[in-house]
Amino acid sequence: MPSAPLVAAHRLLQEATVELTMASTPGTDADELLSVLTMCEAAVRVLERVSVAAIADLQRRGMFAERGYRSAVTALADLLGWERSEARRRLAVAEQAVERTGLDGARLPARLAATAAVFAAGMCSARHVEIVARVLDGPAARRLPPDVWAAAEAQLAAKAGDYSAADLHAWATALVETLDQDGPEPDDRPPVPVNELLLTRNPDGAGGRLKARIDDPTMYDAIVTVLDAHARPATADDDRPDAQRKAEALADVCAFVLDHGDVPARGGERPHLTVAVGLEDLENRARAACLDLGGPLSPEQLRLLCCDARVVPVVLGGAGQPLDVGRARRVIPDGLRRAIAARDRGCARCGRPPSWCEIHHVVPWESGGPTSIDNCAMLCRACHRLVHHGGWDVRLRDGLPEFRPPRWIDRGRRPRSRPPRAPIRFRAPATRSPSARMFADA
Length: 442
Prior knowledge:
Layout: H1 4-23, H2 30-61, H3 63-66, H4 72-80, H5 84-96, E1 100-101, E2 107-108, H6 113-120, H7 126-136, H8 139-142, H9 146-160, H10 165-179, E3 195-201, E4 208-214, H11 217-230, H12 242-260, E5 272-278, H13 279-283, E6 289-291, E7 295-297, H14 299-307, E8 310-316, E9 322-325, E10 329-330, H15 334-344, E11 357-361, E12 376-380, H16 381-389, E13 393-397, E14 400-404, H17 434-441
């Protein structure tokens, strides 16, 4: 329950909000409305400072990690409904513009001392602080001598209240570039080649775009040679544009490799794991185990592992001698995994693709929960860990997964589901390519 001072502060905040609302009713004098706007902005900045200070203290205590979150950004997004970009901004301000605590418990000034003072006085917003921190962490600013860097930070802090966020960014960038008179050291080495392939799924979920840059001449030659060989017109009547023929040739080559090549397993095949289980633990429903290389597992880690893996159990006697080595057994059969992937279409909580995901037993496997589509949900590794260690619960409702957050995020634990997804549309193609007709005729 909230403490008495927090309850009183909440009551006063509500009363102030009511008063401001009454002061801005239709027909209020224009000067009064302008005063309302300035008061609201001042109040927002005060609340930003309180929020940032609370984030810094929680981060310093490790409270988010204790609740199962590896990332404070994810914890803040879940707790407050922020976009991840906003959570990163507040976290950056908390790290740069709040006093720190040394290893000996002594209070240390904020990293951006001058900016922190301006922020505390309500003369700039958290967005301004984030921009100052970003510019002063750039390559040009890191080349400045410490005294010049500190002077630049003081100048930026003094100007933060005079500019909009965009104007402050432009002015700060120009200032740092002016102070960095020597610029980066000359580098006579040839530029590092860039070899990258970017894949972007279309918003409606059907198809996507590929964008590549291949600087390595041998890699580029290999790709072009294969595509040229398969992109030639199939017949004299093949009037497909060159770009279309190359795209379909790439798909043909990839399909051939999937059918005949030695392709590393994707999400459908989990690692083989040898789990050593003591006989007494096995008789007690496997409350402890040990990996080949990873060492002992806690019950929580064992439950996470047993959700979706190929496990080889090795039963050990009291003296550590192997009593039985079982066969590798797939906890989630591949066919069931495909069915769950077709239903959830990726992580049921955050939407990551199925190839990044594992299968979670709603009713735990070690508690007798069936390995069936009605007791399983697809989760990425991060969301799976939150369900096992972060206090989140998952259940199936009307055949689809929904999640209940822990009480520290939502006291009422109101269920949350993944945002609506684009429906799957089944439609026949208007025309078939000559290559498709050729295979159909064959």
